[in-house]
Structure formats: C-alpha cells, structure tokens
C-alpha cells in the first residue's frame, strides 16, 4: 500500500448508511477509502440526520470521513417528483454544490475529486468543474435491456427500451458527457457495456471496476445445511421492469410444467410492477409464488440461508448487491448472461442464459432451473465455484488496493491545467 494519504473530495449525492443500492455505494466506498486517505464527502443535507444518528449510535467503528452537506433551496424540492424531476434536481445540485466546493478549495484543501454517485454517465453532473485532479467512477450507463428480450415488456416498456438505446447513442454529442470524459484523469467503468459507450479516444484512461464487492461481513462460516422437502427458489430486488418482468414468471411456469413436483418461489422486494406481476402470476396459475414485499437485511439473509436456488431475470444492472448476497450465502444462480450478472457469476460458476430471444431465454431459464432442481450436487458445485470466483476477483480488499493504486498514480502526475479557476 502507498503510505501517502491523499486529500480527497468524494461527490456522493446518494450516501446513507444501512440502506441499499446507490446510497449504500456512497456510504461503503467513502468508509473504505477513509481507511487509507483523508476523505471529505459532499452529499445532500437530507442525509445528515441519518449519518449522524448512525455514527452516534455506534453502528460502526470510526474514524469516519468528514461530511459536507449541501442542498438546494427548499422550494425547489417540490419539483423533485418522478424520474424527470429528480433528474433536473440532481443536475442543478451537482452544479451548485461543485461550485461551492471550488470556492472552499482555493487553498488546496483537496488534491483529488472523486465522483461516485449517482454512478451513471447518462445523467449530467459537473464534478469535472472542480479545480483538482478528477477521478470519475465507477460509473455505468451503458447497460441496456437487450433488444432481443423486448418481448418481455408491454408497448410502453418497449418504448422506454428504445428511448434508452437512442439516448446512449446520442451521448456522443452530449457536451456535459464529453466534458466529464475529457477532464477526467481516470475513468472507472462498471461494465463492458459502459466501456463500449466511451469514445475510443478516452479508452486509454479507462479501467473496468464494479461498484460492489464481497466482504467478510457478508460471508457465512460454512454452507448452511439444506434439506428442504420442497424445493425453495428466491429472488430479491426492487420490482421494476428491468429487474422483475414477465420473463421470470413465464420461465417459472414452464419449469413448473416440466418439474411436476412441489416447489416455492419467494420474491422479496416492492415496487411499481408488483400489482402487474401478481396478476400475471395468478393468470399463469403459479400458486407457488409468494410476493412478500420489502424485508430487513436480517430477514433477507434468513430467506437466502433457507433457499436452494437464486433465480433472476434482471436485464440492466452493474454490480447488484442481491447477487453478491446470494452467492455469499452459498446459493447457485440462474440468470441472464448480461452486464453485471455476467461478471459476478463467473463462467462455469452458475447457469447464465444468453439474450437471444424472449422465447429462447424462457425455455433455457426453465432448463437451468430443472438442472439445479434435480441435482443437489450441481447446486453445491456452482455455489462453491461462484463464491470462489467472487473471493478471487471481487473483494473489498481488491477494491481498496485498486483505489490506492489509482490515487497514487493521480498524485504522481502533474495536475491538469486549471481551466476553471475559482472565483
């Protein structure tokens, strides 16, 4: 490890302990980087009470980063409704918050600005305006629902898929996107799909790095004893179309028709697609499927320990926490061979179905479930191999080593010309 502690400003619009998704990324990365560097986290004022209560309650041992809280005037918050409102609020927040931090940095308080969340290149943000060296990522944005699987969605869903594909293509003429890539000293891309979206002239300063990893706190000491009389399948996540969709239930219906033995499927999570999925479940006669809503981490872990197979048809993700948690609990995985899941479940470490067509994916997912359902030995083998793959390639220790190396490299090079002098 390099002994030089860098002075770092982390931009984390989403940063809150004890939660999941982007908020967990902001919190966990800040805490991880603080171990070897001097970290200040720029985040939203609305996260202050959660962060301060968490620290005061002794939920984790310190030391903790310094936190700077910034929010837009309260009257603007009423416009932050729906994805479009959030998009505009976030864009304005990053601009004004970064300009505020530029003024604070007149005396060289920070050497590196590390933009972290929201970790997408599709939403405009202005971290590149900071008068420091600039690290971007890990960022996604290139992940997309494969067009071959658009049959899994209704007309409105298919339109959203096409719009996303179009937006990704138009990023090549987006000035804020290009300014971020040009100004960045280094770019960390979450997946190959995002790497492919970055113009070739910036690839020399781009590395591949997932935003999630596995740590000792997630691992069981040993594989749980599973002797279920009835096969148990589980899936966890927010109920949105890109994560939970008709393909999952249709594949499960085909599996049921061919398995002809008892099984249970538990779906943990909530979201806007729940009602539609429950209607489809009833229409397909899948009385074995239970939608149980959101659960605490402890309850999720208990269900993972009690289950035999983790099944997912998520189509557009980077490093999904749910996959890491499932594999850490010694579960074999059946999923689609796309973006983040394809990286997390190593080749030969689970059943990954290519996105050739809706019909082909449905049948091959059912095949995968049948293979694992009928062979406890194969389930154990895939669970062991998947865990070994994570422990070799995706641990928080490796992430920390990568960041130490990246920071050392940034500090060793001259700062870019100051194109945006502080006022």
Topology, element by element:
Elements: E1 7-12, H1 21-34, E2 38-44, H2 48-56, E3 66-70, H3 74-77, H4 82-104, E4 112-117, E5 133-139, H5 155-170, H6 175-183, E6 186-189, H7 192-197, E7 206-208, E8 231-236, H8 246-259, E9 263-268, H9 274-283, E10 289-293, H10 297-306, E11 309-311, H11 321-328, E12 333-336, H12 339-344, E13 351-353, H13 358-373, H14 376-393, H15 396-412
Parallel strand pairs: 1-2, 1-4, 2-3, 4-5, 5-6, 6-7, 8-9, 8-11, 9-10, 11-12, 12-13
Helix pairs in contact: 8-13
Give structural notes:
With 423 residues, this protein is an alpha/beta fold. It folds into two domains: 7-213 and 395-412, Glycogen Phosphorylase B (Rossmann fold), CATH 3.40.50.2000; 216-393, 3-Layer(aba) Sandwich (Rossmann fold). Helices cover 43% and strands 15% of the residues. The protein has 15 helices and 13 strands. The protein has helices spanning 21-34, 48-56, 74-77, 82-104, 155-170, 175-183, 192-197, 246-259, 274-283, 297-306, 321-328, 339-344, 358-373, 376-393, 396-412; strands spanning 7-12, 38-44, 66-70, 112-117, 133-139, 186-189, 206-208, 231-236, 263-268, 289-293, 309-311, 333-336, 351-353. The strands form two sheets. A seven-stranded parallel sheet has the order 3-2-1-4-5-6-7, sandwiched between helices. Helix 8 crosses helix 13. The longest helix has 23 residues, at 82-104.
């Amino acid at each position: 490890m390099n002994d030089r502690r860098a002075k770092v400003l982390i931009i984390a619009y989403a940063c809150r302990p004890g939660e999941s998704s982007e908020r967990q990324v902001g919190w966990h990365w800040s805490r991880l980087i603080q171990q070897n560097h001097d970290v200040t986290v720029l985040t939203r004022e609305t996260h202050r009470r959660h962060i301060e209560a968490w620290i005061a309650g002794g939920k984790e041992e310190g030391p903790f980063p310094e936190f700077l809280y910034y929010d837009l005037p309260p009257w603007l918050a009423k416009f932050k409704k729906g994805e479009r409102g959030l998009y505009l609020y976030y864009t304005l927040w990053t601009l004004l918050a970064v300009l505020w931090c530029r003024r604070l940095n007149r005396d060289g308080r920070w050497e590196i600005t590390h933009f972290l969340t929201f970790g997408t290149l599709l939403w405009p943000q202005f971290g590149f305006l900071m008068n420091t060296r600039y690290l971007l990522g890990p960022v996604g944005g290139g992940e997309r629902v494969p067009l071959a699987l658009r049959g899994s969605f209704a007309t409105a869903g298919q339109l959203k898929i096409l719009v996303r594909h179009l937006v990704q293509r138009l990023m090549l003429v987006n000035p804020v996107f290009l300014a971020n890539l040009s100004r960045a000293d280094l770019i960390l891309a979450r997946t190959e799909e995002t790497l492919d979206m970055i113009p070739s002239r910036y690839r020399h300063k781009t590395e591949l790095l997932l935003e999630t990893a596995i740590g000792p706190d997630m691992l069981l000491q040993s594989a749980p004893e599973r002797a279920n009389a009835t096969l148990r399948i589980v899936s966890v996540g927010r109920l949105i179309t890109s994560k939970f969709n008709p393909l999952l239930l249709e594949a499960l219906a085909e599996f049921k028709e061919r398995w002809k033995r008892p099984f249970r499927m538990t779906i943990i999570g909530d979201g806007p697609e729940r009602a539609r999925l429950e209607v489809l479940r009833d229409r397909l006669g899948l009385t074995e499927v239970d939608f149980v809503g959101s659960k605490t981490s402890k309850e999720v872990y208990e269900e993972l320990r009690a289950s035999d197979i983790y099944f997912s048809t998520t189509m557009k993700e980077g490093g999904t926490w749910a996959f890491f948690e499932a594999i850490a609990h010694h579960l074999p995985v059946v999923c689609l061979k796309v973006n983040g899941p394809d990286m997390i479940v190593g080749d030969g470490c689970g059943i990954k179905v290519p996105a050739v067509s809706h019909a082909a994916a449905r049948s091959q997912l059912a095949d995968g479930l049948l293979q694992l359902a009928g062979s406890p030995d194969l389930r154990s083998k895939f669970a062991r191999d998947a865990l070994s793959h994570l422990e070799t390639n995706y641990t928080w220790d490796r992430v920390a080593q990568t960041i130490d190396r990246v920071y050392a490299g940034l500090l060793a090079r001259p700062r870019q010309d100051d194109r945006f002098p502080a006022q």
